From TrEMBL:
Protein name: MFS family permease
Location(s), subcellular: Cell membrane
InterPro entries (alphabetical): MFS, MFS_dom, MFS_trans_sf, Sugar_transporter_CS
Main location: membrane
Keyword annotations of the record: Membrane, Transmembrane, Transmembrane helix
Membrane topology, record value: Multi-pass membrane protein
Organism of this sequence: Actinoplanes octamycinicus
Single GO molecular function: transmembrane transporter activity
Domain Major facilitator superfamily (MFS) profile: residue ranges: 12-402
SUPFAM superfamilies: MFS general substrate transporter
Length: 402
């Protein structure tokens, strides 16, 4: 698909940054702090299992909604209505989620929130292949990737400050994403691309939807992303509980405050690696070496808290893990946009790829809760590291990108 927009090229990048900052503000602020804290307050005795249930079921919604929303935006020839609709729907859901008083209601609310956010994400993600030329994809992906450290830092700061009054935190984060959606769609108007008049049947839609995975390079990019994200979320989804029950914190430092300290360190390192990785991969015309090294490093640094379950070990882990994950996501996103099977199906295919982001989040909470209850928190790092190394190896078979 080739959308003609009033804002393109360099002028589009600040708006993409804003949109992605808002998205990761929600994901890391709510998913990383508010939901775990809310679950722990409601069901402290079974918080590990309950959080696994909430996170896993909500990730199912993310997995299902993202590619469907992407395919619908492809068929309508528009991105902006989906960005705006997702952002406004998220605000409505989060305004209610903060008042949930049972684990079931938290699960329902976060499922609906994930659905709304993935409508927003599917359309926003497709803007890069729609409007940015291939030669600038690394730089664009670096700018998009900065949404993780900036949004993560902002989201955790808001969530940590409002963890005692979650309804306030949820509302603030909802306003942020709705505001970003309004600004993006107002300042980056688009002309709809022509859409085909024939609408395929359900069976054909399923076959077309899955056909991109038959593409060799896209399939391996999918596998590598899935493994790395699975390794990352096996650990990060339980960060608050790790700091509560496993890591030896200094006297007077609460787990929520520790998250607020760790996040800027990790996200600052992620920001540096995101920019450096994206720009250097453009300049050198190489993607795979950056992806392989960064994923391998992500695996190795998981050993630090395993060997040293201390606050110092977590600080070192946070910085190095941020460097590895930031470089991987920036360059891997650029690689993915270069191996899409069909440009006109960009949002749909990126939605399929996003299953590699959301799918591991389905598995990770359940796996992590089983690991913690049977083998302890330390084993999370060992398994997360092994998965990340496998993610580094998965990029080797990609043929069309160096």
């Amino acid at each position: 698909m080739n959308l003609t927009a009033t804002v393109t090229g360099r002028g589009l990048l600040p708006l993409l940054l804003l949109g992605n900052v808002a998205m990761y503000t929600v994901y890391l602020g709510i998913g990383g702090v508010l939901v775990p804290a809310q679950v722990a307050a409601i069901d402290p005795a079974h918080k590990v299992t309950s959080l696994g249930l909430v996170a896993g079921v909500s990730a199912v919604f993310a997995t299902l909604v993202n590619p469907i929303a992407g395919a619908l935006s492809d068929r309508t020839g528009r991105r902006n209505p989906w960005i705006l609709g997702g952002g406004l729907a998220a605000l409505g859901v989060f305004a209610l989620l903060g008042h949930a008083g049972t684990v079931l209601l938290v699960a329902v609310g976060w499922c609906l929130g994930q659905a709304a956010m993935n409508v927003y994400q599917a359309a926003l993600t497709a803007v890069v292949p729609d409007r940015v030329p291939a030669s600038r994809r690394g730089a664009a992906s670096a700018v998009v990737g900065l949404g993780v450290p900036i949004g993560g830092t902002l989201g955790v700061a808001v969530a940590s400050a409002t963890v005692g009054t979650p309804s306030t935190g949820y509302l603030i984060l909802g306003v942020i994403v709705a505001g970003a959606a309004l600004v993006f769609t107002r300042l980056a108007p688009e002309r709809p691309a022509p859409v085909e008049g024939r609408h395929p049947g359900l069976g054909e839609q399923v076959r077309v939807f899955l056909s991109c995975l038959a593409h060799h390079d896209f399939r391996w990019a999918f596998i590598g992303r899935a493994l790395l994200v699975l390794g990352y979320f096996t650990v990060s989804a339980y960060q608050l509980y790790l700091l509560t029950d496993h890591i030896r914190l200094p006297a007077g430092l609460s787990p929520a405050a520790a998250v607020a300290v760790l996040t800027p360190i990790s996200m600052g390192a992620m920001a540096l690696a995101t920019v450096a990785g994206g720009v250097l991969s453009d300049r050198l015309g190489r993607r795979k070496i950056f992806i392989g090294i960064s994923a391998g490093l992500a695996g190795l640094v998981m050993l630090i808290p395993l060997v040293s379950p201390t606050w110092t070990g977590m600080l070192l882990f946070g910085g190095l893990n941020g460097l590895a994950f930031g470089c991987f996501m920036a360059v891997d996103t650029a690689l993915v946009t270069l191996v899409l099977p069909r440009a006109e199906d960009a949002a749909r295919d990126l939605g399929v790829l996003n299953v590699a982001n959301a799918g591991p989040q389905i598995i990770a909470p359940f796996v992590a809760s089983v690991i913690v209850t049977t083998a302890g928190y330390g084993s999370l790092f060992l398994i997360g590291g092994a998965l990340s190394v496998l993610g580094a190896l998965a990029v080797i078979p990609v043929r069309s990108v160096r």
